[in-house]
Write a structure and sequence with these properties.
Number of domains: 1
CATH architecture: 3-Layer(aba) Sandwich
Shape: globular
Keywords: Methyltransferase, Transferase
CATH class: Alpha Beta
Distance between the termini: 35 Å
Strand content: 5-15%
GO molecular function: methyltransferase activity
Order of helices and strands: HEHEHHEEHEHEE
Protein name: SAM-dependent methyltransferase
Structural class: alpha/beta
CATH topology: Rossmann fold
């Protein structure tokens, strides 16, 4: 599992963002949750303090907290400047401005870093990646995939998306994916085919509006559930 840190943008989201991104309910918080490609999100750290059961997987966890923080510092201003220079592409409702977005990403990172070593010891942060998950069948009730599948449709093939979702649905009874837009703000070209593929396989699958929007038009998630 070779990952080059200089090819990674280590941005993470908070517990509150995950709650809105995935329409998480009190019932969902009773479930055993898998975070796919969580990176330096603070969702796991905050969930753990609340007594919730969350396991995060990401190949970035092979790096130290110092390395992850250094990479964040290298890229954050460039990313925020790109956002600032494309004002029509963003919705400033949850985040109030590019500066607020940066502050919220830094807040998530710092909470993650404070929890990182203990979380690794407790095996809440695991060095794994799709489509090669090393869990038992149906080990999780709910998998959450934030800002990975579909978002990187230009970089990751349809076959990768299909194999990854098959892999996730082996180990989890349900998966929710957000956003459905690519980096270029287009609906992923894979979405319709994925919906047909998993409908034909006998899954319950639907689109659902969520309470979060940053990319303009990016306010839906895809839900795929095992039936029965």
């Amino acid at each position: 599992m070779v990952v080059q840190l200089d090819q990674v943008v280590p941005f993470g989201r908070t517990f509150d963002e995950y709650t809105k991104i995935f329409n998480l309910s009190d019932a969902d918080f009773q479930k055993k949750i898998l975070g796919v490609g969580d990176g330096p999100a603070s969702f796991n750290a905050e969930a753990s303090k609340k007594g919730l059961k969350v396991t995060s997987i990401d190949p970035i966890y092979q790096f130290t907290k110092t390395e992850i923080k250094q990479r964040f510092d290298e890229v954050v201003d460039n990313i925020i400047n790109q956002v600032r220079n494309t004002p029509d592409d963003w919705v400033w409702s949850y985040h109030q401005s590019p500066e607020d977005l940066k502050n919220n990403r830094l807040k998530a990172l710092n909470m993650f870093l404070e929890d990182y070593e203990q979380g690794k010891q407790e095996q809440r942060y695991l060095i794994q990646e799709v489509p090669h998950l090393a869990f038992q069948e149906n080990e999780f009730d709910l998998a959450l995939c934030s800002h990975f599948l579909f978002l990187y449709s230009d970089q990751l093939s349809y076959e990768f998306h299909l194999k990854s979702l098959d892999d996730i649905l082996k180990v989890s009874k349900e998966v929710r994916i957000f956003p459905l837009l690519t980096m270029m703000l287009d609906l992923s070209p894979y979405l319709d085919a994925i919906i047909k593929e998993f409908t034909d396989k006998g899954y319950q699958i639907y689109l659902e509006k969520v309470q979060y929007e940053l990319q303009k038009g990016g306010n839906e998630m895809l839900v795929i559930k095992k039936i029965g």
